[in-house]
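Possible regression after last week's pipeline update?

I re-ran a chain I had predicted before the update to compare outputs. Posting the input and the new output here so someone can diff against the archived version. Not blocking, just want to make sure nothing changed silently.
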Amino acid sequence: MNKVCSRTLLVAVIAAVSIEVASAQVSDEFRAMWVSRFEWPSTSKSTVMSRINSIMTNLDNRNFNAVIFQVRGQMDTLYPSPHEPWSPLVSANGNAPSGWGSFDPLQYAIDAAHSHGLEFHAYINTHVGWQSGSDNPPSYCSWHPYWDYLDASTAGNHDWLIHDYYGNPTQFEESGYVWLAPGVPEFQAYLRRQVMYVVENYDVDGVHFDRIRMPGNTFSYDPISQARRAGEGNPDGLGFADWTRDQFTRMLCDLYAQINEVSPNVKVSSAPLGLYAPYTYPGYPTSDCGYLYGYSCVLQDAQAWLAAGAQDFICPQIYWADGGGNPDFSEILPDWVTNAAGRHIVAGHTAGNGVSALLSEIGVCRSEGAAGNVVWSYNTFNTSNYWNDFSGSGGPYQQAANLPDMPWKSSPTEGIIMGVITDLDGVSPVVDCQIFRDGSSYTALSSADGLYSFLKVAPGTYTLTFDKNGLDVRQVGQVVVAAGEVTRVNFSYAEPPLVGDYDDDGDVDIYDLPAIVYCVAGPAYQFAPANFCLFADSDGDLDVDMVDYAEIMRHFTNTE
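New output (post-update):
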């Protein structure tokens, strides 16, 4: 039997077994639908309400338990944002839609989902600022962020825009999107601010990210990223591709820390491309872009996000049915499950492949140990009327299912450290300060708002070291981390070093005592200005006497 026939037979057997598995019922499974920004908005408030009601009712009646509902497709929104204009899908000028008054479709959708027992995940595109199939700018709104940060035609107004290999600002790349450079700290902070506004102001059950990648592997050679990669912003000395991938991961780590500090029950997820890397699938093209591989072709390392603890689950877009030529769903999913790093894999399917493929793929998910399914997207599924195939007699969703437990959230064994670093004025944030934690080889970096983070920290007591060119190396000791808690350690270079802390670990303890005792020479002995003993001179009179000793002892901590 030749290779093609053998493979066809194997796929047919997998499909048959998978459909049988899919018809079985399970008690815990994530069951969601993606609802895109092109499926529910309208300039008519009553139409929006009607569409939302219909979506949530259908999902509830057919035993889905979650909805991933798009509310931001670019740098404009489908909710009232203090930072960005309303989307042109509902607004003629970026202001609140005419006749809507105080109506907030995001709040309405959350309430509708919760009234039907559905988890609501706010779906946000991250690294795209504008989209136009005809390469037109957002002329509908004069204050769209595009004009300040993504306008390639205006010098000084495209700092956040991706640049090509030759350093040229580049617009309207893949899918007609204007893409944002992941290595620009100001953009990282801006994006996190948009997400945190949703988390802090709405009762969402999750936030879900898409377009968190580059349009290709030759972007972004922008000046800011290039300078950072050659300097303090590259503590591990990474090459271009690895450094660019790492920028996405670091941003997600900081955002995960921020979310967990204020709303630890909110689930964080993303929809990476379905194919991870060329070396992952035997027999598949081995070149970087032989297929649209996330890792090598668009610099998206979703498995690193999982390993870092920056995602609660991911939904790889595995949009290929089994049978015919590569790729095949059943060949792609196992690697994601194997590399889940203790988090959940929720397979992403497309209704465009037909209901037989969907049912077979659900069986593969259950056999491989995936946590559930999400289907792209609502309109195709609804128009094709696949509801009964899913939840009718013998369908995989015939019986309702609970959402699967996330033990790292319900019974955590690790904590998080995060904080903000400010400059000598005590106000201005410090960018690209390198932060080290004892017991870890990872170097955190502060972003444009001074934010840094460490995820997956074992409970214990730690010392943090802060190192920024042009400023002192400083330490903060006695940083206590508890399981399930976020420990905030803000640090300012405006704060003077702790007097008597000779080993610079952020405290005065028995390890500092030998130097202190040695230096207490009394008021008659004046030290030269550069002498190390003056680190114990609390009153600045160039001696170390009992006055200084008494002040030092006020801060003494027995750390034995």
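Follow-up from reviewer: compared with the archived run. The mean pLDDT is 93. Marking as no regression found.
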